[in-house]
Amino acid sequence: MTIELITFDLDDTLWDTAPVIVKAEQVLRDWLSQNASRLGGVEAAQYQAIRERVLVQMPGLKHRISALRLQILQQMLQDAGYDNAQVMARDAFEAFIEARHVLDVFPQAEPTLAALARDYALGVVTNGNADVHRIGLGHHFAFVLCAEDIGVAKPDARLFHEALLRGEAQAQATVHIGDHPRDDIAGAQQAGLRAVWFNPGGKQWEGDKAPDAEIGCLSELPAVLKRLS
Questions:
Q1: Which helix (H) or strand (E) holds 158?
Q2: CB neighbourhood size of 177 (10 A)
Q3: Apex CA 176: angle with CA 175 and CA 180, to 5°?
Q4: 197 has which bridge partners?
Q5: Could you read off the pLDDT tens digit of each residue along the chain, which spans 229 residues?
Q6: For residue 191, what are the CA distances in angstroms to 59, 155, 206?
Q7: In the CATH scheme, what is the code of domain 18-100?
Q8: Cα of 20 vs its chain's centroid, Å
């Protein structure tokens, strides 16, 4: 069947995520140090303990990572005795999320998306909380689907099925692009889509079912999709 819809993962597919999150976490720590000194710094073990407590109380937040982080921050601030914890949590989260969007898109991303958009409908399927419109790539995509939108995350097939509904395409006519062997490749294939593994590091494939194709650079994608068609 002719390919009609291409869906993209975001983190580590259109940009390198790890350094962005490290910087955003530091921005958050700095904000808390300056504006919530009663916390006295937040250790990883303390954060994890509060996270687990919040998830026990609100299990529906498991895949809603922005809402979960916001609730954790509010709980931390409440525990520290701040009466305006809700407002402070929102301000702290905004500092984090602003820094989370200070990133460098892979050089090949913009031209590749522009080229593909001439021939296919493009969509986003992500477990993360990056906003492609805030980054400047949103105009390439017909829709953006985040795990937070429906409360399930890749590799759950329901996220991919929702993407098919939003993209008005059948699974056989859709290809997903992503870096994660389980979340992106296995998840998409289990939902009936074909999957292209973005593997710039040249890692050895260790999954059960091989991807339908593999690329080391986004610029390879148009030719690969023509072959898949």
A1: helix 157-167
A2: 28
A3: 150
A4: 178, 214
A5: 799 999 999 999 999 999 999 999 999 999 999 999 998 877 778 889 999 999 999 999 999 999 999 999 999 999 999 999 999 999 999 999 999 999 999 999 999 999 999 999 999 999 999 999 999 999 999 999 999 999 999 999 999 999 999 999 999 999 999 999 999 999 999 999 999 999 999 999 998 899 999 999 999 999 999 999 8
A6: 25, 9, 20
A7: 1.20.120.1600
A8: 13
Rounded CA gap, 91 and 82, in Å?
14
How far is residue 92 from each of residues 64, 76, 99, measured CA to CA in Å? 17, 12, 11
Is residue 188 a contact partner of residue 195, using CB atoms and an 8 Å limit?
yes
Q: What distance in Å separates the CA atoms of residue 153 and residue 180, rounded to the nearest whole number?
A: 13
The two tokens of residue 33 are: 């140090």
Q: Show the tokens assigned to 70.
A: 């916001």
Neighbours of 192 (CB within 10 A): 14
Q: In the chain, helix, strand, coil percent, each to 5?
A: 55, 15, 35
Alpha carbon 98 to its chain centroid, in Å, reads 15
Fold classified for 5-16+104-228: Rossmann fold (3.40.50)
164 in Cβ contact with 179 (< 8 Å): no
Sketch the domain layout of the chain as residue ranges.
5-16+104-228, 18-100
Please state, in angstroms and rounded to a whole number, the distance separating the CA atoms of residues 125 and 104.
20
